[in-house]
Amino acid sequence: MMRPYSIDSRSIGTGDAAFVIAEVGINHCGDRERAIEMCRVAHECGADAVKFQTFSAEEFCGDPAQLFTYRSQGREVTESLLDMFERHELSKPDWIAIERACREIGITFFSTPQNVSDLELLLELDVPAIKIGSDDFTNLPLIEAYSRAGLPLILSSGMSNLAEVHSALDAAGWFEGGEVALLLCTSMYPTPPEEVHLARLTTLQNAFPGLVTGFSDHTIGSQAAAMATGLGAKIFEKHFTLDRGLPGPDHWFSESPEDLAAWIEAIRTAERIVGQPYVRAAAGENGMKTLARRSVVALFDIVEGEELGPHNIGARRPGGGLPPSFLSSITGLRALRSLPRGSVLSFGDFGR
């Protein structure tokens, strides 16, 4: 049983629908209107939330001379990491407008801050949760600072081992009862199937009973997310873009709106397939149960007072009457009335 956990009044845990996040990241290209349009598209695709990355490039990047090579528009691009992030930075008025638009659209807005100053901005916007990326998973002082905000935390665990997971959960306050969720993540873009290791979800759930787990999906397509649903993942996240041909480091591996919608539908379909844990006949099986199961029936015309046994009763379709397990109990008893051939026996038809 998962511990109570919620985002924006949405309960997320045992028996609840998965919480699906459309990751905008920096795919807005520093354009407020594109960011708002992505929020609209994410809502139309069925996402519960949109998530951004909130940062000040100068605080985020320590070395102006650091170069970054990435794939964009079908070719490799090398540029200053600082320049790239400055181009994708949004202002405080931008964030205010985006958050307001999300409220009007009806989709949950939150973000990943890179520093405490970014967190302070997000708190001004009254975000309902804080996401911590895999890059800061071992930045325990920062996680501790974020946890003091008192909001639900989501941690991505890319590039980490089990000991580091324990330390991050400790810093986030999970062992003291804090609302913390952990996303399985592989920090490879895109992630090849052999590097996903969804079996780690079970390891994490067993190591930390009650922990809400999820999947930050960097694979191509929806198969991995559907499988993670079957393994108990309750929060899902995936990058998307309005156009894979836009300039920037993340567009080429991000999902198109059409693929994002298909990914979300795959999760919802997987949820329906997983269903409930109770071992009982499905409601839709009742007709087949009557048709296919067998009942105790009269094999021949039976007269009142005749002894019952294998010579005149047996198990035949349809179901709905006494099951075949009653045959041995009925054998040796007598018919209390005449029973035409094919009659389905009931308790009032026999006695001593």
From TrEMBL:
Domain of life where this protein originates: Bacteria
GO molecular function: N-acylneuraminate-9-phosphate synthase activity
Residues in AFP-like domain copies: 295-352
Xref: Pfam families: NeuB, SAF
PROSITE patterns: AFP_LIKE (PS50844)
GO biological process: carbohydrate biosynthetic process
Record's protein name: N-acetylneuraminate synthase
